[in-house]
Each structure stands twice: as C-alpha cells, then as structure tokens.
Design a protein that fits this description.
Protein name: PepSY-associated TM helix domain-containing protein
Transmembrane segments: 12-33, 151-175, 207-230, 351-372
Helix content: 40-55%
Keywords: Membrane, Transmembrane, Transmembrane helix
Pfam family, one: PepSY_TM
InterPro entries: PepSY-ass_TM
Length: 383
C-alpha cells in the first residue's frame, strides 16, 4: 500500500517537474566545465599576448576602472573587478545592471558587459556583451529557465524540491522485496540485451540508484542557492552543533601608500596573497560601506578564501574572514558552489559531477517513457 502511494507521488511529481529537471541537468553538465571551456574557446579575452614583454608593475586599479568605463556606453558603470595575480592573465571589469521584476531573460539584464584589460599596459583586449554570451545564457537557463529571477528562480526552486522527493521515493520503489540472487542482479545491473521496454526500465531504475547520492547533493545545494531562508536555516542549525569557539583574527595595520583606499587595499592584499588564483572586488560607491576584497586561494574554488573589509574613511581593515575560521554551518554553506559544480575535489569530482548531472538528465526521459508505455497499455485495455 505504501509503495503504491509512493509510486503515484513519484509519477506525478516526475511529470510535473520532468522537463525542468531535464533542462537544469543538461545545462548543469555544461556549467561544470564552463571555466575551462571559456579559457579554451576564447584565449584572446583571458590571456595576455607575450606576457614576458609587459612592464613588471600593474597600473593603479582606479585608473584601470576609468579605462574600462570609457569603452562602455554612457551611464554604464563598472561594479565588479576580477583580478588574476598570474602575469599572463587579463583583469576582468564587469558592468551589470538588472531588472529584478523582468519576466524574460531578454529584459532581466538592462546591461551586462565585461571588459578584458591588460593590467600592465591598460590595453583593452575585448569588450564583451555578456548578455549574449553562450555560457551566460546557459547559466541563466540553469538558474531560472530564462524567465528572470523573480519567476524562473521559483519554478526551478520548487522543481528542485520535487526532484529531492523523487530521489527519496525512488530509492524506496527500487528496494527489492526479497534479497534473492536474481532480484539483486536485476536491481544492480542493466540488461543491455533485453527488449526496449525492459532496457528503458533498467536505465531508469538502476542508474537512478547509482546516482542517488550525487543527485541528492545537487538537490540540497540547489535548494541552498534557490531559497535564502533554507540556506540560513542550514547554517544556523549546523552552527549550533559547533560549540568550539573560533579565535578572532587579528587585524593588520595597513600603511597608506596609495592615493585611494581601493588601490591601497588591493596592493596590500596582492602582497599578502601573491600565489592566490583570483581576487574579486565589488566596488562600493557609498563611502560609509566597507570596501571588500575576496581572495580565492585555489583554482576554481570559492570555498577556500580570505575576505578583507576595508574602512573607506581610514583605509584600515575593519573585518577579516577566512574559510579556516568559520563555524560548521557557515563553512558548509561557503562550500555550496564547490559542492554543486563538483570542484570540491578537483578534476575527478568535476568529472563525477558531469556524469552525475548527465544521469539526472536521463531520468525524466526514461521515466516519461515508462509512464507513456503504461498509459498506452491501459488505453488499449479500455478499448
């Protein structure tokens, strides 16, 4: 009786969310390797030609921001800078303005451009309309089905909830009634010599079992992205389990050697983390707000970081965060992106995430075929 009710729930939740799960999973496959693919397909944006011939010192960041903004349309402003300490990399200046109420992707970004600048010479290598960038469209399709944040985010979020329930109900439906040699073989292996209906059933049933943990991880991390309240709850609950008091980090004294707080702070952070993979700066126009500089220590990892907050009035660090000094809940949620795209363990976990997402994309297809075959069979019986 329980399995019958679960089967009904599994069927209808699958039919309701199947198309969304298919789209989100397929775009997820591409997002796993989007950083590597962009570097490979557009080296002219990300790499400096003949880096050994460049001056040894970079131009002041504020001047580079001004250079980048001159390449934009009137009214468009740089709001974020991605800095790469490697000598062969450009710095990426982003200008973004969004319409949170937009229904379609075409209206969501008022403008979104990236300006790729050689930080040693000030030469602008490429000005990209990121709104039409292939990987950006794939990302927005993954996050909100190109329906804008207000509406599409909700659809994807609730479809993710349905997907999590499908995973949990699926393992109950998969569970053999009796653990006999034949049932064990049927439950753990795919009979590729079987007829199409049986093969499709095995692909859904067996692949669903083997991908269960990865699928649940995708669902959990997806929900953290989709619902801020869920993220806060997870963080608070896990933080409550972490009774160990974290030692407060001592704040360094910052000599004021540059003309602006932004340049001075960047010079200090670059000196402290010269081997970092990337620095990200969200430019704060309001002087009452601290100017933050995030340092990503490892390549393609967001969960291993230092985060500096500079007082814009005196240039001193007023707060310093590091991934090594977070409570359990904050640590888990800071790793959410790395877990979601599989970068947590390098290339091997990324490959696992890629194939896991591919299997997740297949489940709505094989599940729909199972339903369609049963529907046709029941229809024939009624005739």
């Amino acid at each position: 009786m329980v399995k019958k009710k679960l089967l009904w729930l599994h069927k209808w939740l699958g039919l309701l969310s199947g198309l969304v799960v298919l789209i989100v999973s397929l775009t997820g496959c591409l997002n796993v390797f989007q950083d590597e693919l962009q570097l490979m397909t557009h080296p002219e944006k990300f790499f400096i030609e003949k880096p050994n011939l460049q001056p040894s010192k970079t131009i002041a960041l504020c001047k580079l921001v001004s250079i980048a903004e001159k390449k934009l349309n009137p009214g468009e402003k740089i709001s974020r800078v991605d800095i790469f300490p490697q000598e062969n990399r450009t710095w990426v200046f982003r200008a973004i303005k969004t319409n949170k109420e937009a229904f379609f992707y075409s209206d969501y970004f008022t403008y979104y451009k990236r300006v790729f600048v050689n930080p040693y010479t000030g030469n602008v290598q490429v000005v990209e309309n990121t709104k039409t960038n292939f990987f950006q469209i794939v990302l927005q399709l993954h996050m909100n089905l190109l329906l804008g944040q207000k509406y599409g985010h909700v659809v994807v979020g609730f479809s993710t909830i349905f997907f999590a329930i499908l995973c949990l109900s699926g393992i109950v439906l998969w569970w053999p009634k009796k653990w006999k040699p034949k049932t064990i073989k049927d439950s753990f292996s795919i009979n590729f010599k079987a007829k199409s209906k049986r093969l499709n059933y095995d692909l859904h049933n067996v692949l669903g079992f083997y991908s269960l943990l990865v699928a649940l991880l995708f669902a959990f991390t997806g929900l953290v992205f989709a619902f801020p309240a869920f993220k806060k709850m997870v963080s608070n609950q896990l933080n409550a389990l972490d009774s160990k008091e974290k030692q407060k980090l001592s704040l360094p004294f910052i000599p004021q050697t540059a003309t602006t707080v932004l340049d001075n702070g960047l010079n200090y952070v670059l000196a402290q983390h010269s081997n970092a993979d990337q620095l990200s700066i969200r430019i704060q126009k309001d002087i009452s707000e601290p100017q933050d500089i995030q340092v990503r220590i490892e390549k393609n990892r967001t969960g291993v970081f230092y985060w500096y907050y500079f007082n814009q009035k005196n240039g001193q660090v007023e707060e310093l965060k590091t991934s090594d000094n977070l409570q359990l809940g904050s640590r888990v949620t800071s790793l959410n992106y790395d877990l979601h795209v599989g970068s947590i363990g390098g290339i091997y976990t990324k490959i696992l995430a890629f194939f896991g997402a591919l299997v997740c994309a297949s489940l709505p297809v094989t599940g729909f075929i199972i339903w369609l075959n049963k529907y046709k069979k029941s229809k024939l019986k009624r005739i």
